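[job 0412] stage=complex_fold ligand=FE2/S2 (inorganic) cluster status=START
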Amino acid sequence: MSATVEINFTLNGRKRQLTIDAGLSALNLLRDKLDMTGTKYACGEGECGACTILVDGLSVNSCLMYAADFDGRDIVTIEGLRSDKGFDPMQDAFVEHGAIQCGFCMPGMIMQARHLADTNKDLTYDGLKRGLEGNVCRCTGYKKVFDAVADVIGIAK
Amino acid sequence: MADKVQLLTSIEKKTLIGKRVPKPDSRDKAIGRTRYINDMKLPGMLHGKILHAGVPHARIKRIDVSKARDLPGVHAVLTADDIPEFIFGMARDNRPLKGGKVRCVRDEIAAVAAESEAICDAALALIEVEFEALPAVFDPAEAAKDDAPRIHEGKDDNFNLKYHFGSGDVKAAEATSDVVIDETFNVHYVTHVCMGTSCAIADFDPDGKLTIYSQTQYPYNFKMDLAPALGMHAGDIRVIQPPIGGAFGSKLDVYPYEPVCVLLARATQRPVKLMFSREEEFINAPTRQPVRIHLRAGAKKDGTLTFRDIKCLLNNGAYTSWGPTVPYVMMRTFSSLFRVPDVNIDCQSVYTNNPYAGSFRGYGNVQATYALAIHTDIMAEALGMSFVDLALKNAQVSGEVTPQGAVLNECALAECLTLAADKTDFRAKEKEYAALRDAPGRFKRGIGMAASIHNAGGAKIHKSDGCGTILKLDDYARCTVITGASEIGQGIDAVLSQIISEELGIPMRDITIVNNDSAIAPWDVGVHASRTTFIAGNGAQRAARKARVQILAAASRQSNVPPEALDLREGWVVQEDGGVPVIKIDRILRQMHFSDEPELVMVSDYYEPPSEPEGKDHVGDMSAAYSHAVHVAEVEVDTETGEVKVLKITSAQDVGRIINELGLEAQIEGGIIMGLGYAISEELIIENGQVRNPNFRDYKLITSPEVPELDLHFIESHSSTGPMGAKGIAELPTIVIAPAVANAVHNAIGIRFHNPPMTPEKVARAIWEKNSSRAAAE
Ligand code: FES
Ligand code: FES
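[job 0412] stage=complex_fold status=DONE, emitting structure tokens
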């Protein structure tokens, strides 16, 4: 039907080469073609953050990105978020602070939190609240999310 | 082995009850490993999509699906003509696919099963439909008129459900009143906005038995309600519940997409998955019930409440789900929040061409408390009292019985009120802010309080409010608990594991909860009415105690210590006194298993709470416990933009007893934020039957920057019937917050909002109107 393109990229630390539909969204590539369902669909319009991934270290709503634009980039999804010691401290903190209820928003929330921690040296508590604005959660009151992130990056309220 | 026993001289009792325990499933969720229903694929699976009417009231003149059927990749296209007239729903007024005419924009008129969602969409676009518009009616008061268009053929009028409760003599009580306040409230449409959109997967075996992967939060009655929509026997339906992205009451009924998905699977003999897009979700998923509440009530000079006389009109929408049954709970609040002997309540729902409501966290009590707690604040103002003092004057004490027969054992209303007022310096701030209302300055501070009551020990709305539990221990002292209670993100997995761990002295990680397959787990009413910790918790505790008795009896036979003098701690049978170890639990289990009289520890329990269904007169002690919550909201209103900034929420709630402090806080925080959306930002705008804002941009949820400071306080009243003394807690936080904010806004700017949400536009307009009428008067 539509044109295809070949892309070369790094996904969670492994090199990948794929031929894909030029119009395919990054989210659909991950979920439907690669069966990496950790990244969620909840709106498809860039309004909820459930599909957040890291592209060259920066957070992106994968539902708004063309998969073709993965070419030449370093992609990290929730499945690939790890530290040398095991799980990313952000993942541990979300668990320990009780920040996770149904959990559907949490892959996106955790990826965004990781982006905030990595890209803002002097993040404040208020700053992290603003930085998570694009990530909708319907279960929690967000407070435990803030506490988890603040704990990881070592800031007080 | 024996040597090791000697080394341990004493094992102390450690408890997890009241501790901060993460949800057992949260690790998987944090690493993206949890396989939600929305993530699932079955081999050979097709996708399904529905064509919705998009018009509110019309005759279907012609529907032609031939082009859609011819599209490559399409396996089936169904309309009402292709299936028998299956009727389902609470009032038996709904059908999976509508033929003849449509009654609201949601109406399902055709469905496609195809190789991909994209092919489904292409096929839907090829379906030709011609409608002939019919006169439509959207306002329940209009729909109640004799000459209103009929929504359902064969009915004399559009009235649907009616409720009446009366106690005492309202007229006589009014005559003794010094103050009578008469106010009308209009509470709006909001919707659940579960992050995981609605989804079902249906799969038939060759014998015609159905397996449905479902988001349902009431798997057992779900089978019963789904069966008539398919012409099936409920016994031939197996419900599997994968993890879901939220429910909040939206999954407490069968909605047409579910039987449609099954009918597509039946037609294609392939598994079919049907999942809503976000836009479909906003338009077609249930809403909270909107209600017009007319509330007339009186008090004596000293603040003693005398009577309440209430009329509610409910916009039923086109079909009947739980929405129009919310008076069951509204009436409870009107008759039971504070002591008021003389009460008259009339509620009715009227069919319109609007979408229809389901149950939603708080279920009627959100609506009732919004009206009643604001009304109470108006009453307090008229009497020259503070909300807290008027409430305290009329607060019930333990053991009191309300006019509808609720027995308020372990009632902590007065403690909640006092604590919330003390923690916020409520009386002083209320006076101070009111005095500053008309002083110059753009930003105005306000403080407001609200209280409510809710069932906290289940709700006997069916003949049984029970929960079944099966518990087994294997040779390694690993415990499997098979419970009817569903996990929908609320945290029952943690609570049940803690209770079992407490009773059996084994660590939480050795406990597996199985609760996602109706072919395995025993019956339960479902996750609703703040009932699961109470009901399933009691069931789990009782099952664990049976297992405990069996283990201690065996250990007693072996050690010659009487069972009453033994305890289970940290994987050991110990002597209660001094904690002297007797034998490891796994060891005694193996000895029991491989003895001359072999026995396995596998027990079951069916727990039915000590409550009774309401009679026809709506009287009955329908819950095994009740509890109260009081919220204080502190706000700042920008009088130029109308923005209401909520600075701080202080909550005092009777929780019976804390089981999992982390889960308790999470539920209360989440409930408050959800209720805050109801108060200041969320509204599903429905005009002429059409949903105008079906996306996150225009349907404004509270997000992280607006989260206020939250100060939570728990009162432990120790329910005599709850597991370890616990009460149900999850709905009250959502119920109480909105009127607390409304009362705070009034305290700040002197304006009442009887029609939430208090959006900047609405607040700014009200301020402008107040200023211009004041200017006109001067
Ligand atoms: S799914 Fe991408 S932002 Fe919502
Ligand atoms: S935890 Fe359920 S949506 Fe965030």
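The domain at 89-153 of chain A is CATH 1.10.150.120 (DNA polymerase; domain 1).
[job 0412] exit 0
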